[in-house]
Amino acid sequence: MAQPIIEFKNVAKQYDDNIVLKSVDLEIEAGKFYTLLGPSGSGKTTILRLIAGFLEATSGDILFEGQRINDLPPEKRRVNTVFQNYALFPNMNVFDNVAFGMSIKGKKKSDIKAKVAEMLTLVKLKGYEDREISELSGGQQQRVAIARALANDPEVLLLDEPLSALDYKLRKDMQYELREIQKRLGITFIFVTHDQEEALAMSDWIFVTNEGEIVQNGTPVDIYDAPINHFVADFIGESNILSGVMRQDYLVSFAGKEFENVDGGMRPNEPVEVVLRPEDLDLVSVDDGKLVVTIDYQSFRGDYYEITAHDDDQNYWKIQATNPAVTGERRGLFFDPEDIHIMRLDESEEDFDARMEEYEDSEEDVQHES
Amino acid sequence: MANKSKKWSNIYLIFVFILMYAPIFYLIFYSFNKGDFMADFSGFSWRHYIDMFADTRLMQILVNTFIVALLSALIATLIGLFGALGIYNTKQNNTKNILLSLNNILMVSPDVIIGASFLIFFTMVGLKLGFGSVVLAHIAFSIPIVVLMVLPKLNEMNPALVDAARDLGANNYQVLSRVILPYAWPGILSGFFMAITYSLDDFAVTFFVTGNGFSTLSVEIYSRARQGIDLSINALSALMFLLSLILVIIYYFISNYSSKGSKKKRGARMVVHQ
After folding, report:
1. Tens-digit pLDDT profile for residues B79-92
2. Which residues of A touch B164 (CB under 8 A)?
3. Does A73 sit within 8 Å of B166, measured CB to CB?
4. CB B170 to CB A91 under 8 A?
5. H, E, C per residue of chain A
6. In this prediction, does ipTM exceed 0.90?
């Protein structure tokens, strides 16, 4: 494997008695789009600021291309940041903002001019050089901030919740564009967000953070389909989480019944948590269902109905359906064996990954059979 | 009902302004009197103005006063600016509050006390009273004002701007000169003008530290007034009022320049685009 461009080794950060980051290890490979995803206060911005150099780690090593950079000031690091509220210089116009880094380095005027034009074209703000920052909309300011950071040819671009101040539609567009820019330039992006949808849509690789730790990392599909614990399952996407018991490999019991599934590697009769995604659940006739539920409530969400129901064991179920249901009606609930995801209680990420690896092949076998 | 209360508030406002400005206009009005006293206006004349300009000692003092004001304001702005930056950059909240309080104590303590302590200090150090001692004293009491004008501007600044500048490769000096100073510029400017104003109209402190040969306007007017007011003082007051007015207007235009400048430019561009 190639040398990671950024590496954290047991990095911790604390203020007085307040621990914001507990011994974090991570590796960032060049040229990929990474996302640090977590609720506010989970330490994701702390990680970003440690990479940028605005914070000093209390302990541990931060490596950049194998060199320890803990003591390197931010102006000497080959990373640039797009800040949450853009942090554009209000006393300068668009050109001077984008040119700031280059003029600090004393580049030639003609080079600066060409580079600014190139960057503004990249972010679709061609011809905006003379505008004042106060004249721009939020979305345009966002683009200037991206252009300003990219104009320094960073190896790594850090983005600190850059889209959180934009409206929904604009946010969607910018997600797509950021991804495009990253692919075109081929540099590493590290994106911080608390929006799981954003993370899933944009990233090659996601680090999920909670309470100062990285709880899981993987591709968006891995994390969505196989969350490691209750927190990840709950935080990423909607989910039904039930407690159950793993009878034996490929057989789990929950909601008063036993179901065939695709997970294994646990002790017989081990208590576990079971995750079922609302979109994997289908409402069918009572006879065809694996479970029988009573519809409690439904709300229209535009592209689907979100239905709440309870089964005979008084477990509540969230179901996403394209067709409306009738409140109070009894319906069957159907799901496939591979829709059932099992989470062991307090499993470490290493053990989890190893178990996933081991049962990946057999999982495919089962899928073929069904 | 609302209209009526609005009318009353207007009347009140007018009353307040009359109260504030009446003495000044009274003084200015009699500066044009042909007679020698501030009673029975006997006709218009410039003669007190001519007297005033002919009084070389008074003119010398007027020039001195302005030199002291400009010089002390300039130095105080420089020192106060770095003081404000120092307080702004203090991480510890307690230390920050102590520094700020120490600054504010100088603002509220009576001029007489400050003046007396300067007098004692200067004589103890062996500094000759005169121009130097007055400028030093004025710098000293102007610094807290500058700090108070600059600090809110710094606090209002998004701290991410400093991070952004460093992120883009700026060292400490470049962060200061390219980001912080331009941002705090209106505050620095108001600090400078406030310092000039404080220096121009200070009497108590100056009175203690002028010594023999040197004098400023407020001290001179005081000493002359003790022998009975000469109407050329009225003429001087009128002149000073006019100068202050000009200062205020200059300040108004400078402080509006940065915010309105961009709008004007935009207006011009929009015309071009049409």
Report:
1. 999 999 999 998 88
2. 81, 83, 87-89, 148
3. yes
4. no
5. CCCCCEEEEEEEEEECCEEEEEEEEEEECCCCEEEEECCCCCCHHHHHHHHHCCCCCCEEEEEECCEECCCCCHHHCCEEEEECCECCCCCCEHHHHHHHHHHHCCCCHHHHHHHHHHHHHHCCCCCCCCCEHHHCCHHHHHHHHHHHHHCCCCCEEEEECCCCCCCHHHHHHHHHHHHHHHHHHCCEEEEEECCHHHHHHHCCEEEEEECCEEEEEECHHHHHHCCCCHHHHHHCCCCEEEEEEEEECCEEEECCEEEECCCCCCCCCEEEEEEECHHHCEEECCCCCCEEEEEEEEEECCCCEEEEEEECCCCEEEEEECCCCCCCCEEEEECCHHHCEEEECCCCHHHHHHHHHHHHHHHHHHHHHC
6. no
